[in-house]
Design a protein that fits this description.
Blueprint: H1 2-26, E1 38-40, E2 47-49, H2 53-69, H3 72-82, E3 86-88, E4 97-99, H4 103-111, E5 119-121, E6 124-130, E7 136-142, E8 150-152, H5 162-175, E9 198-200, E10 208-212, E11 217-221, E12 225-228, E13 231-234, E14 237-239, H6 240-254, H7 259-301, H8 307-337, H9 344-354, H10 357-361, H11 368-378, E15 379-385, E16 392-399, E17 404-410, H12 423-433, H13 438-447, H14 460-469, E18 485-487, H15 489-496, H16 500-509, E19 514-515, E20 524-527, H17 529-533, E21 535-536, E22 543-544, H18 546-553, H19 557-566, E23 570-574, E24 581-585, H20 598-609, H21 617-625
Helix pairs in contact: 2-3, 2-7, 3-4, 7-8, 7-9, 13-14, 15-16, 19-20
Length: 626
């Protein structure tokens, strides 16, 4: 009995304490954990801004950037791009820590009603439940705002007012996937300007966006489907290019009078954004300077003989000094990047440009996201009605404020742009088709960088289709005898018993006659009996190597090669192993005077290679190959 009574007394005391907490919270005086940016005052229920000016500046930047950008993610990216840090507090009573901002920290600031001056208590509830094994468990469940125990708007001075907080909540909710029969959704990167604004005029569903064609032209369709002739078809489907142009023209016409004011507002907005980032940077420099000064005082206050403590304090001081220098360097860099203030003449020029909004709308620097933001700032929704059997479509623009405008446009029809292969590719195909099959032609066109009308690489089937379309005859092998037939480099190397590199070298040196239809096409070599006789296994009698020929004739290697090309000397190619190579037949009298034009040939060869007669054999060989 005594144990039961004692347990009942403990339960009664606990209930009384909890009721006391709840009664105090109902008056807004219970000191629960405050989010970063607020501290408790001396009086009951008094909530003040954080005494650190840098903390207050960082919180204000979140709300200012969200009012400008309209998206939590874009606010987070702004902090990351500017290289700013964000204050956090891990537990109640801990000092503020500065870390790179996370997405969740930005979300917590924008969704917490305390920043709007409201006192909130009982936002979660601890529950007990039985798991699948029958064991008692506890869990913390967050409650919707309608079930909070205490919510007192206007309790203290906030960073924003309660109306702005509610507008921010609605805007965050609209950035999510819209609910059925309602428009919305955050701005995306596509080119469809009415994404999230367009409404089906037949069933009221929000229109969805898809892109077709190589140019990714936007199209709108209603996700609702109807049964037409036994098939499910979209309730509405219409091309978006003409619709977007009509809506944009109407919006630009409506805001033409406010173009100058919009230009001035844009200037002020850019300057305000840059000033906000620099202000927080300067506060960060002040914080780093204070931390360095405090570390210096701690180091100087320690006993110099206590080296164990002095070493740690010295390292801490050096680290704070490095942080201070880094913050100062970052501030100086940001100030250099800051756009200078516009002069009076430049402001007048910008105001004149603001009066020409269509040119700013069509400028390459204006992104699709910028255009969508402008449309959403002016339009509540756009209702499209495009019956299938009618040649026109009706558009109703619902402006913010309740006014509406009716537009009628001709229903867009599919008019595919003419697609045609360029003339250079067709002309080259005509020349190649007389000598090569389609597979070889495809390789040549790809190596030269030619593409089909749709930007694809050529294949055998695509070459055949293009040739058939332009009525180009296909390649037919000639019935010429084997001796004298036109072969490729690989076939010539196999027939002559040499490597393909030898054939290429002889083509470059001019010893073999070959031609190309176009650079990159296969070489065409006529394989004659005379050519076969110039490739032997052993050198005939009277044929010597190049070194011997140059020594006996008393001329350079370049001159000997030139005489061989001109037919003044006979030469053969030996195919046997390391002894292979060029062998030259010398005349009975080796004296150079036997050749009447030896001097002129020698001068010509030297002038072509731009080198004296005495240059080395290696350099002459290089010049010959070139």
């Amino acid at each position: 009995m005594k144990g039961t009574i004692s347990e009942a007394e403990l339960h009664t005391l606990k209930v009384r304490l909890l009721e006391g907490i709840r009664n105090k919270a109902a008056r807004g005086e219970f000191r629960c954990t405050l989010p970063v940016g607020f501290v408790w005052g001396e009086q009951d229920g008094e909530v003040r801004f954080h005494p650190d000016e840098e903390v207050v500046r960082a919180i204000r930047n979140v709300f200012e950037r969200f009012a400008e950008l309209g998206s939590i993610r874009r606010v987070w990216l702004w902090f990351r791009d500017e290289g700013l840090q964000f204050p956090v507090r891990l537990r109640s009573g801990d000092d503020v820590r500065w870390i790179p901002p996370s997405y969740s920290s930005i979300v917590q600031v924008l969704r917490n009603p305390v920043y709007a001056g409201a006192y909130a208590f009982g936002k979660s509830r601890q529950e007990r439940y039985l798991d699948q094994h029958g064991r008692m468990k506890k869990r913390l469940r967050r409650l919707p705002r309608a079930e909070w125990r205490v919510l007192l708007p206007g309790h203290h001075r906030g960073y924003i007012d309660w109306e702005t907080f509610e507008a921010n909540r609605a805007r965050i909710g609209a950035n999510r996937r819209p609910r059925p029969h309602s428009a919305g959704g955050s701005v995306r990167e596509g080119s469809a300007l009415l994404q999230g604004l367009a409404i089906c005029g037949n069933c009221g569903r929000p229109l969805r966006t898809h892109y077709l064609g190589r140019l990714s032209s936007p199209n709108y369709h209603c996700p609702g489907q109807n049964i037409v002739e036994g098939r499910a078809t979209y309730c509405l489907q219409i091309g978006g290019t003409q619709v977007d142009q009509a809506v944009a023209a109407s919006v630009l016409e409506a805001v033409r009078a406010g173009g100058a004011a919009a230009a001035l507002r844009a200037i002020e907005q850019v300057e305000s954004e840059r000033d906000a980032a620099l202000a927080q940077r300067r506060l960060a420099v002040e914080r780093a300077s204070y931390e360095a000064t405090r570390a210096e005082r701690a180091y100087r206050a320690v006993d110099p003989e206590n080296r164990r403590v002095a070493r740690g304090l010295e390292q801490e001081w050096e680290q704070r000094l490095e942080d201070l220098e880094r913050e100062r360097a970052e501030l100086a860099l940001r100030e250099q990047e800051r756009p200078r203030e516009l002069s009076a003449h430049e402001r007048e020029a910008l105001l004149a440009l603001g009066e020409d909004l269509p040119r700013a709308w069509d400028a390459p620097t204006t992104t699709a996201r910028d255009r969508k933001e402008l449309l959403r700032a002016l339009l509540e929704e756009v209702v499209l009605d495009a019956p299938r059997n009618e040649p026109s479509a009706r558009i109703r623009l619902v402006w913010r404020g309740g006014l509406s405008t009716e537009l009628t446009i001709e229903r867009p029809r599919n008019r595919p742009a003419p697609v045609r292969t360029d003339e250079d590719t067709i002309e080259l195909l005509r020349r190649l088709a007389a000598h090569y099959p389609d597979a070889v032609i495809a390789g040549i066109l790809n190596r030269k960088g030619h593409r089909t009308a749709y930007g694809l690489r050529f294949t055998q089937s695509r070459v055949s289709s293009l040739r058939t379309h332009w009525k180009i005859p296909c390649f037919k092998p000639s019935g010429s005898p084997a001796d004298g037939e036109v072969v490729s480099v690989r076939q010539a190397a196999k027939a002559l018993g040499v490597a393909t590199s030898t054939i290429h070298r002889m083509l470059n040196d001019g010893f073999l006659a070959g031609d190309q239809i176009t650079p990159g096409a296969p070489w065409r070599i006529r394989l004659t009996e005379e050519l076969r006789q110039r490739f032997v296994e052993d050198a005939p009698e009277g044929y010597v190597a190049m070194q011997v020929a140059t020594a006996r004739l008393g001329v350079s290697r370049q001159t000997v090669l030139e005489w061989i090309k001109r037919g003044k000397l006979d030469a053969v190619t030996v195919r046997r192993g390391r002894r292979g190579g060029l062998r030259i037949k010398l005349p009975a009298n080796n004296h150079p005077s036997l050749f009447a034009d030896s001097a002129s040939l020698e001068e010509a060869s030297c002038s072509e290679s731009s080198c004296p007669k005495t240059q080395s054999t290696d350099s002459l060989n290089h010049a010959t190959k070139n």
